[in-house]
Design goal:
The complex is a heterodimer of chains A (352) and B (264). Chain A is an alpha/beta fold. Chain A has two domains: 236 residues, Rossmann fold, CATH 3.40.50.300; 60 residues, Alpha-Beta Plaits, CATH 3.30.70.100. Helix content of chain A is 37%, strand content 25%. Chain A has a six-stranded mixed sheet with strand order 6-7-8-3-9-10, sandwiched between helices. A four-stranded antiparallel sheet of chain A has the order 2-1-4-5, with helices on one face. Chain A starts with 5 loop residues before the first strand and ends in a 6-residue tail after the last helix. Helix content of chain B is 79%, strand content 0%. Chain B is built from ten helices and no strands. The longest helix of chain B is centred in the first third of the chain and has 48 residues. In chain B, 47% of the residues are buried. Classes of the chains: A alpha/beta (352), B mainly alpha (264). At the A-B interface, helix 2 and helix 3 of A face helix 1 and helix 4 of B.
């Protein structure tokens, strides 16, 4: 099978005037673990609901296992090979876990039920009402995988799981991929995306802003350089070619995202008194903040339109940061969330 | 289809037992009063005859005397307890089936299984049938026993027919609730609409009975199920029965189609 397992093309969904997603296009290949990244309200859940046939697109199309998601009879058949973990897991509260699994087992199969229950144990004889968040999530995972689906669509599947269970779950995803299953899941936990995903799509305000192999994405994003200088630096002085972002945080530490031109970096630091310096790989967090920092992503991914990402920053803001925004650990994030937050507000409820 | 019905039926057992228990208590209390009502017979019938026609229709149906055990049962139990209370109850119960799960999100896992929405709607609706049958079976036995206990007799076949023929009436009321359930995001709203619809039909029937506007009451399901006629004369309104069955089927089809087309 070489056809993509999931194809989303020009997908647009509005709830009345409220934007869910807009002109979204991507494809998920068979046998890959695909991460769908974005903050709350960015349209992740909307996309998943369209893919599952729960809601219909306003425009554009989507297919799941070569089936148009608006073809209700064909999609019903395709769902035999689908596993799903909803974002807000909700079962029949007054029913025991055992009966819940019996029910879904009859609806779609349960060949691997016992094996999965050994890995994700829950109190089957108790009513779901008494379950903790993590136990509900485990029950959801067992029901999603117990019929050996070829594609699994999950909406933030690790929320509520403790770290040990999370690890078990990541192992399961790796095994599923090896078995040939396709895994599509949304997340805003970057470490898990980095750990388990082959490729990642990043959406912001309902639009796709990046679609990349995760290693390429990190590589392109360069390195983070944190420098503590004896004198409080002006970040504008560090906006040279190859610097994607230059900020000063609340502690007066200069933080640069550098995507090449290391000579430039050295020459700009030359002559200054350096108290401390740290150079590290970009984390997905950095990339993420980058995407939501107000810049155009097409520019930032290929290494650095300084104007865009720092637009409006200026010395003034830099000075104020030290005093006014002390409660914010990373000034650039606060600015980013300010810019992004306002926009998100207009699209609020997109995940509803 | 039956997996859903089976699962939902299992979840209803507790409710059925509670409802039946409450009705059995009502039956026991009602029948315990009958000996003294019977003694007061003529006076009470005079009182009944002087009731406004709307109230008489609402509480007595077609019955003219409450000093016979049949008249008493119809006026004190079936007219009010079955046509109104159980009608409202099953409208309410059906209103909850889909809307509650849409509201709390538990429908999502069912709808992402390889089942059609029609199957979900019909499966859930059918789970009300065992409940209706069980409640009627238990209350039939209770009425029969209670009548015997106070030293009276009713035609057992007629009594059984009242309970059997109430099933299509209650299914039609449930159909109404089901339609409310599939179009609503909030279970409260669906329940309110269902209760209002069943109660409203009952009122329209009562208020227009024997007036120039009697035709208005033809929309009411209660016009097609007359416990008094069945219990006293053993007369079955076959056309009415067909209308109730037809209405129930139509409402379920409408509900299924509305749910199929709905964005969730």
């Amino acid at each position: 099978m070489t056809d993509p397992t999931i194809v989303v093309s020009g997908l647009t969904k509005y709830y009345g005037d409220v934007r869910g997603v807009e002109d979204l296009s991507f494809a998920v290949r068979p046998g890959e673990v695909f991460g769908f990244l974005g903050p709350n309200g960015s349209g992740k859940t909307t996309t998943i609901r369209v893919l599952l046939g729960l809601t219909s697109p306003t425009a554009g199309s989507a297919t799941l296992l070569d089936t148009d998601v608006t073809d209700r009879d064909a999609l019903r058949e395709a769902r035999r090979d689908l596993g799903h973990v909803p974002g807000d897991v909700s079962f029949y509260e007054r029913t025991t876990g055992e009966r819940v699994l019996d029910y879904f087992g009859r609806l779609k199969g349960e060949r691997r039920r016992e094996e999965l229950l050994e890995r994700f144990p829950v109190h089957l004889d108790r009513r779901v009402k008494t379950y903790s968040r993590g136990n509900r999530q485990k029950l959801a995972i067992v029901q999603a995988f117990m019929h050996e689906p070829t594609v699994v669509v999950m909406d933030e599947p690790t929320s509520g799981l403790d770290p040990l269970v999370q690890n078990e779950f990541y192992d399961l995803l790796a095994e599923e991929r090896d078995r040939g299953a396709t895994v599509f899941f949304s997340s805003h936990i970057l470490s898990e995306v980095r750990r388990v995903c082959d490729r990642v799509a990043v959406i912001r305000e309902g639009k796709l802003v990046a679609l990349e192999n995760i290693h390429d994405l990190l590589e392109k994003s360069g390195k983070v350089v944190r420098v503590r200088l004896a004198e409080s630096p002006d970040p504008d002085a560090f906006r040279f070619d190859g610097v994607a972002r230059a900020t000063v945080d609340a502690d007066g530490v200069l933080e640069l995202v550098v995507t090449g031109n290391y000579e430039g970096l050295v020459s700009h630091l030359d002559g200054r008194e350096i108290e401390d310096i740290e150079i590290r790989e970009t984390s997905l967090e950095d990339v993420f903040i980058h995407f939501y920092g107000g810049g155009d992503v097409e520019d930032t991914t290929d290494g650095g339109d300084v104007e865009d990402t720092t637009d409006g920053g200026g010395t003034e803001t830099g000075d104020e940061r030290g005093t006014n925004t002390g409660d914010e650990p990373d000034v650039d994030v606060s600015r980013a969330s300010g810019a992004g937050g306002g926009d998100e507000g207009t699209g609020g409820g997109g995940d509803a | 289809m039956l997996e859903i019905t089976r699962f939902e039926t299992g979840r209803r057992i507790r409710g059925v037992l509670l409802l039946s228990g409450a009705l059995v208590v009502l039956i026991a209390l009602t029948m315990a009063l009958f000996p003294s009502i019977k003694q007061a017979g003529v006076d009470l019938d005079a009182y009944v005859a002087n009731l406004p026609p709307e109230a008489r229709r609402a509480f007595l149906g077609n019955v003219t005397t409450i000093s016979t055990v049949e008249g008493y049962l119809v006026s004190q139990l079936y007219q009010f307890g079955w046509l109104l209370i159980l009608g409202v109850y099953y409208g309410y119960a059906a209103a909850s089936v889909v809307a509650r799960e849409v509201e709390d999100g538990s429908i999502e896992l069912v709808l992402t299984s390889p089942v059609s929405r029609t199957r979900v709607v019909v499966g859930k609706y059918l789970s009300l049938l065992p409940s209706i049958v069980a409640v009627n079976a238990l209350t039939f036995l209770a009425v029969d026993a209670a009548v015997g206990f106070v030293g009276e007799r009713v035609d057992v076949v007629h009594l059984l027919m009242v309970h059997v023929l109430s099933v299509p009436y209650l299914l039609a009321c449930a159909g109404l609730g089901l339609v409310a359930s599939v179009v609503s995001d909030e279970v409260r709203r669906a329940q309110t609409v269902a209760i209002g619809a069943v109660f409203g039909m009952y009122l329209v029937d009562s208020l227009t009975f024997d007036t120039d506007y009697e035709w208005l009451g033809n929309v009411a399901f209660s016009r097609y199920f007359d416990p008094g006629e069945i219990l006293i004369d053993g007369k079955v309104d076959w056309a009415g029965l067909a209308i109730l069955v037809g209405a129930a089927v139509l409402l379920v089809v409408v509900a299924a189609e509305l749910f199929e087309r709905r964005d969730l």
